[in-house]
Queue: 3 jobs
Job 1
Amino acid sequence: MADFLVVFTAVLVVIGLGGLRIANQYARGVVFRLGRYQGTRGPGLYWIIPLIEWTRTIDMRISTAAVEEQETITKDNVPIKVNAVVWYRIVDPKEAVIEVKNIDTAVIQVALTTLRTGIGQHSLDEVLKEQEAVSSLIQQKIDAVTEPWGVKVVRVEMKNVEIPSSMQRAMAQEAEALREKRARLIKAQAEFEAAEQLRKASEIIMQSPAGLELRRMQMLTEVGAEQNTMTIVMMPSEFVTMAGNIAKLVKQPA
């Protein structure tokens, strides 16, 4: 009898220790009993019935999936090649185990198809200039598909957008034309402002002839300071008229 108790106790100890499981803080254990879902355990130490229950451990940390390069056509019929990165995590271990066989492969395949269709709904300019907004829309579409699987898509980023070389040259020519247009507009605006200032200055001088003479004297001072070999002196029109009258008087006979 004593031997039987010893053997029975040993069997219970073996069964008890054999059913112990440990789930890390970032993991959960999905327990099945005779093929039926029993519950989600963890983190920490938990126990299952040996030979009757078994468990599958699910990592709930954020995973990264690289979406291979996809060739697609934008809304304005430009062929481009795009690759992306998807960050996702499992938020419901039960659904992630029961609803889909290979969660990583499923997420990548959804991202592939959604990336192609998502890019096709935007023009090339939107894809190049508003990548964050386009990525956000693609993320929402992927998340809508993976939500029933217990997966949350955290972020989607396009790594590289490759456009045809002919389109690159056309975009470079367009950018150059825009820069030239901007430069001409700036130059025209500067000339307009200079002409406006000259017009105002001429109005002031017309109101005060003495101001014109002061400006002539100032100009002569500036020219002389530059040490030029030749200096042109602009005389007032009154002096020129007076000199002409004196010359006529001198030429008259006495």
Job 2
Amino acid sequence: MATVRIVGTGSYLPERVLTNHDLEKMVDTTDEWIRTRTGIRERHIAADDEATSDMAAVAAKRALEDAGVSVKDIDTLITATITPDMVFPSTACLVQERIGATNAFCFDVGAACSGFLYGLEMAKGMILNGTSKNVLLIGAEKLSAFTDWEDRSTCVLFGDGAGAAVIQASSNGRGIRHTVMGSDGGLGDLLKIPAGGSKTPASARTVDDRLHYMKMTGNEVFKHAVRCMSDAGQKVLVECGLTVDDVRWIIPHQANMRIIRAIGSRLGDVQEKLYVNLDRVGNMSAASVPVALDEAVVAGKVKPGDTLLFVVFGAGFTWGAMVVEW
């Protein structure tokens, strides 16, 4: 069956590291409280003058180098992000200018933490229908710019970073095998940034009311995240004719360690197959899966022929699962 494959990966994490002990000095929390509830020890925070597009550009260049593909051969550039440099132009266009991808058409994907997987499925479709040949897909977030550092329930969760992949038609039959995706807009109020869009434009009041920061109903998000990712993971395996025993690595959205462990249990008590870097980077939304993937590849954990399972969940709500034969 015709498919596409990832031929190169790259990632970038900002230099500054914010530890739980640092957060103890900022809000009413403790290292023990954060670790037991989230599994996070530290996260990377972008510099004040470092935008989402800056991080995306570094990850993109590293992916191109890994793939051995010239930037001039990139005909499609997709950036998955919910923290764009600005409302418009797209962050993808800003990255295009930074890296010199002058032959690419560019656009952003706004599916929150599911954005990279959604972008992979879009890249697959465009390559198979002949629209594209070389797609550069980036997941990049500067969540620190939208984090309320006075809200201890959310400020401990998020980090900044970027991951990228180069996607081409597969020459050996390996690559993306199948994808399952879903959304439920009826649950959108559980995780959102209330102001800054056309419904509630920026004003002195919205700034004073701290409406430009992320708001989350944590317990409800937890419940839906576990159910949706587990169900999607089980469904995509069944539709591929596989079981979890066939999977070498499960790379989940790095949201919360309790969520990740619950998914591992529901998929068949496969904790040892979960690739986790959450403790070191926190929740990076659309950057989570590509950064984890690049780390696993660089570390030699992912080998040709391995079957990978990506499972994601994000605001919207959006979710999905994808089986990839590496």
Job 3
Amino acid sequence: MRALVRAETWPIRGGFRIARGARAAAEVVVLELHQDGLIGRGECVPYARYGESIASVRAQIGAACRSLEVAGAREQALAMPAGAARNALDCALWDLEAKRAHKPAWQLAGLAQPPEAVRTMRTVSLASAPEMKAAAAEIADAPRIKVKVDGGSDLERIAAVHEAAPEAELIVDANEAWSMEQLAAWLPILPTFGVVVLEQPLRADDDAPLERLEHAVPICADESFHDRRAFPSVARRYDVVNIKLDKTGGLTEALRCAAEAHRLGLEVMVGCMVSTSLSIEPALLLAPGAGYVDLDGPLLLDTDREGALHDRKTGWLRPSASIWGGA
């Protein structure tokens, strides 16, 4: 089995900003596994928040592929640390396995039927309240909108988005930027603005106070949740877990995380980084069991991969076997 690893840059339409910083492009790593004339592909997004870079992820993938055996390769890959590098490898192995078995990836995953089209929530990037209101007006017909905030004039921003899209359910994502004082003051007000979920208000290393916090709005773990090892603490503090393949380290672990979340009575959000459809196709296998689908990464790009069937205007994601997971 031969491995080819490359970095790619995909410009973001209008840029993208969250509490942690701004980006003008999605920087992704693509892995191709070649065997017997077949190619399995996977994509990941290295994330500095988790100590990852393009160089470190490429090095991890290269080292793992040199010692990988074909038989039981996905289970071998689980010895790698959870993160972006393992995600690219795991998804490429799923894709290759589907082609070798002449079965689509959804069948290999044990799903009863292929994933259907699903409508993703849309994202309003962090900006001033007037700018966010204008951005929300462009997607006002979206059933759910994710609102990025940073601990500044957030109630003003949330109110502006709600005014522009009054029928939409809002998911407010603080990306660890709120203090406990802000959380206690703002949480009771959020339902008046149509907020149905608050995502990661506190820092992942300082979220223990959530165990004692009464809240009417469900709270979702993102940075606090990576893989199944996080459940003992997360289950005491959160109502929803955001499962992202770049955090779990691939589809194999993500499917197991979803099953465990359901067993524990936690809601599931399936999320993504800003990426192309090659990252999103595997995540669509989680969508049927997710209460919240946040997979609009490719819709934020200027262009997407050839063969992508997603609709930027409406937010409908339609799986494409030509990109990933086809027999």
